[in-house]
Write a structure and sequence with these properties.
The complex is a heterodimer. By secondary structure, chain A is an all-alpha fold. In chain A, 71% of the residues lie in helices and 2% in strands. Chain A has one domain (3-202). Chain A is globular and about 45 Å long. Chain B is largely without helices or strands. Chain B has no helix or strand. Chain B is rod-shaped, with a radius of gyration of 7 Å. The N and C termini of chain B lie far apart (20 Å). The chains are: A mainly alpha, B little secondary structure. Chain A binds chain B through residues 5, 9, 12, 47, 50, 54, 56, 60, 63-64, 67, 111-112, 117, 120, 162, 165, 177, 180, and chain B through 4-10.
Chain lengths: 212, 10
């Protein structure tokens, strides 16, 4: 465990909590893509099945349980508790265009052709593109609430920090996991455009809105 | 090799 990995995990947690709190405090999930949230919940559930098979550390297991519970709670808030505020008309990304190719790829390119390993690979690939419905929704409505942009910032920061963590681990431990690294790179790149807008607009106190 | 398959990251 190095500082970049820890900081990455923490910003991931911060992102998840920001989103939960935003929905809970405003009693509304307007502007949030329920589809992205379902994808993230699927990512956690398929990846953390190893909670039942191996024990790595108390930290590892507790974080996994927190991530899974929070992501399922978010889906519940969007689709059940605050469903009336869910902006389904703008959440029109076709998720099957992500899930089907990602599913196929995880069968073809993996470390080991076993059910657990294929599910892990599926979750890694799926996570890298799971934010697309949310970004698509923002591009459709042309704007995002500032708190939503903070959520996206921490989510992107998490992946960026993981990239540094992998460079670190490669140099100091000789460890590298090509599947995670390539997927992590893709994931980080998807946030670049957003990062640019975040720095040039949101951090200067303006609302994130896209030119018409 | 055994460690290779253990995913210790989140």
């Amino acid at each position: 465990m190095n500082i970049f990995r820890l900081a990455g995990d923490v910003s991931h947690l911060v992102a998840i909590i920001i989103l939960l709190l935003k929905i809970w405090k405003t009693r509304s999930c307007a502007g949030i893509s329920g589809k992205s949230q379902i994808l993230f919940a699927s990512v956690f559930v398929t990846r953390y099945l190893d909670l039942f098979t191996i024990f790595i550390s108390l930290y590892n297991s507790s974080m996994k349980i927190i991530y899974i519970s929070c992501s399922i709670a978010t889906v519940y808030l969007v689709y059940f508790k605050f469903k009336a505020t869910y902006d389904g008309n703008h959440d029109t990304f076709r998720v099957e265009f992500l899930v089907v190719p990602v599913g196929g790829l995880s069968f073809l390119v993996n470390h080991d052709f076993s059910p657990m390993e294929i599910l892990w690979t599926f979750s890694i690939y799926l996570e890298s593109v799971a934010i697309l419905p949310q970004l698509f929704m923002i591009s459709k409505t042309g704007e995002a609430e500032t708190i939503t942009t903070h959520y996206l910032f921490f989510l992107g920061l998490y992946r960026g920090l993981y990239l540094i963590n992998w460079i670190w681990r490669y140099y100091f431990e000789g460890f590298f996991d090509l599947i995670a690294i390539v997927a992590g790179l893709v994931q980080t790149v998807l946030y670049c455009d957003f990062f640019y807008l975040y720095v040039t607009k949101v951090l200067k106190g303006k609302k994130l809105s896209l030119p018409a | 090799p055994e460690g290779r398959k253990m995913h210790d990251e989140l």
